[in-house]
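Reminder: ligand-aware prediction takes two inputs, not one.
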Amino acid sequence: MSSTAAVEAHELPPGPDDPPALQARRFLGDPWSYLRETSERFGAMFTLRPLYLPALVVISDPALVQELFTADPAALHAGAANRVLEPASGAHSVLLLDDDEHLARRRLLLPAFRGERLASSASVVSGLVARELDRWPLGEPIALHPRFRSIAADVMLAVVFGVEEEDRWPELKKDVLSIQFDEQRQRARAALHEIVAVARRDGSSSHVLAMLLGGHDAHGRPLGDEEIVDELLALLVAGQETTAGSLAWAVERLSRHRAAQDLLRAAVRCGEDAYVDAVVSEVLRVRPVLQWSVRRPTEAFTLGGWSIPAGTLLAASLYLLHLRPDLFPEPDRFKPERFLAAGRRGTYTWVAFGGGVRRCLGASLALLEMNTALRQIVDRFVLLPPHDDAGDEGWRRSGITYVPAAGATVRLSLATLAPVTGIDAGRRPTAGVRR
Ligand code: HEM
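Here is what comes back for the chain with protoporphyrin IX containing FE:
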């Protein structure tokens, strides 16, 4: 039902009548099976009422998701829906802002994550990944999620904060990796204040920081140090664990899908970028580390025939949308080739980075990082399950992300340099090509 055909309704869409405490437990502890079960019972729009949280209307119909993403941003706030992140990212960051202030901050930051500026980060990312891979042991089970956290932290320090390894903040990486704890967060804030002060004095090596130092708010006022530090922390909160978790899922999936892994290796060695992109898209589809894109109506908002009251949370479920068999046949199967056909990553069907004016600001950096890391990994190593009868890893909550429960544990062996076959867009092997 479209919003134009909407009728005034005084109730929210139906949902489970489990007690709120049970809803909270299942919703936080095992959201994936709870969401699936609930959508099987109630369809593509239902309401959860977990204890201590506002009612949450969950949607997984692409037409409704489109309405959510294209609605007037003044009618649907995301900053207000993200309040839970305030202790980590501070109140003055793009994650928490709405309306004109949000748009001004996005306009300021976006160029730093695009085009030439992003391209200039590629060699930095590649060097950081190569350095980490040199330390990976062969033959024994190794949990790669912590290793990806380390890479993602290095990328943040270098690309976003402009801090090189030999710089004068040796403790910052440790603090960044434990940013969820008060003490480490306070220390990281103090270091970031110093970094901002030095950058103001000497200029910054990071495009992001340079943009912020020269930037203004919606009223034309220059940003103060506190606002800049909030922003740097917000980028860290939004970008580090998400990228690390997604890379962890990538190796978990590839270690369990040898044919896809071999095709990826062949594609990397033949310069077949399309298959590499397809693997990344499929990982983000089938194992989204974030659950939702959330918005909070500022006044009653009409969606799917319901009048959703102000204050309710409206959530596009990335997981449920990505598991729709009408959009992605055999949705549970890891099948990168589904993304080889043109137009398969629809704006309102593949939503790993959310959408509309709140779409992930760091999406291009995240894709660059995943692409760079996976290329190097499969070129050097064969990823094997930790033991012969290992099943798939389940989900574990880690801060705001959901990551492989056993830390993406795999065994590595050296990849052969022998001739490989290429692939074409129809996933057929082509003539032998040597690296
Ligand atoms: C694979 C890695 C990543 C995933 C899956 C991811 C996913 C997302 C999602 C789902 C959103 C919410 C969008 C919405 O509400 O519609 C988001 C927002 C955001 N992300 Fe990412 N993200 C990733 C990496 C990054 C990186 C590397 C950065 C920056 C360095 C970043 C910065 C942001 C920011 C600033 C926002 C808020 C945008 C706004 O409110 O205007 N993300 N991301």
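The first strand starts at residue 45 and ends at 48. Confidence is low (pLDDT under 50) at residues 1-10, 431-435. We will return to this case in the review session.
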